[in-house]
Amino acid sequence: MDETIQYGWLDGEKKVHRDMTGFRRDYRIASFEECLKYRVGTCIEQVWMMHLLLDQLYLPNKMYCCRIFEPDDYGNLEEEEHMHCFVLYWKDGKVWQIEHPNQNRKGIYAFSDEDTAVRAIEDYYIALRGGKKSPTTEFTMVEQGLSFREFNQYINSLDGGKGRTR
Question: Can you tell me the distance from the alpha carbon of 114 to that of 95, in angstroms, rounded to the nearest whole number?
Answer without folding.
Answer: 6
